[in-house]
Amino acid sequence: xxxxxxxxxxxxxxxxxxxxxxxxxxxxxxxxxxxxxxxxxxxxxxxxxxxxxxxxxxxxxxxxxxxxxxxxxxxxxxxxxxxxxxxxxxxxxxxxxxxxxxxxxxxxxxxxxxxxxxxxxxxxxxxxxxxxxxxxxxxxxxxxxxxxxxxxxxxxxxxxxxxxxxxxxxxxxxxxxxxxxxxxxxxxxxxxxxxxxxxxxxxxxxxxxxxxxxxxxxxxxxxxxxxxxxxxxxxxxxxxxxxxxxxxxxxxxxxxxxxxxxxxxxxxxxxxxxxxxxxxxxx
Length: 283
Description:
Blueprint: E1 4-9, E2 12-17, H1 28-43, E3 48-52, E4 57-59, H2 71-75, H3 78-96, E5 102-106, E6 109-111, H4 113-120, E7 123-127, E8 131-133, H5 149-153, H6 155-164, E9 167-169, H7 170-176, E10 181-183, H8 185-199, H9 204-220, H10 223-237, H11 241-253, H12 255-263, H13 271-274
Parallel strand pairs: 2-3, 3-5, 4-6, 5-7, 6-8, 7-10
Antiparallel strand pairs: 1-2, 8-9
Helix pairs in contact: 1-3, 3-4, 3-10, 11-12
């Protein structure tokens, strides 16, 4: 069951995602629930939005259920898959272009499509121990905003992430500029709320103008074109042999078994440990 709740206090809207069984997987229904919540906050004259998950996960990404993600492999319809990904990209653009500042509060896992949602918000604050990355590149495809990662962390660090699928901690994400800041898990909730209240002191029209001005920088770097490129690349890769074989295993052996097999060769030291970038964040 999709669980997205909204509350408003002191002009700060808090949208909480809490679908525990899927770790806030971004099904089409879940995406619509987030958009509906954003619209409700705007209607109630909110000035700042906080988007949060649970301590276990901000979001596990797009749904890996037996329905939806497997259809593109069984239907052999490349254009249907591209249309589906285009709708997902439109959702991310809608979050990014929301008139109010949106702060994402990152705890636990933020992976695959979850990173797309995080990067669609204006400011991401993470727990030091959060687990961020794109393990989907090991056998499922790319993330729709992966073409934007070089703008955040540079091309070489992007390739470290995308060539391995390893996760990094919230603390490492801060050092690389992928999130604005990281704090101890126990302090995250208070830090986010205090920041939101501080931002809410600025007149709404000025907040909207400054957000628009900042977003223009990404537009000048080809933001929309890069996302369209990611949609096309992801569509193509979905019809390659490795991904078709992954979904065949998932149908025959179950999703958990397919994921275990996918990740079996990546046990041991991740790139952060190999390169001495910080404490190991195990998969």
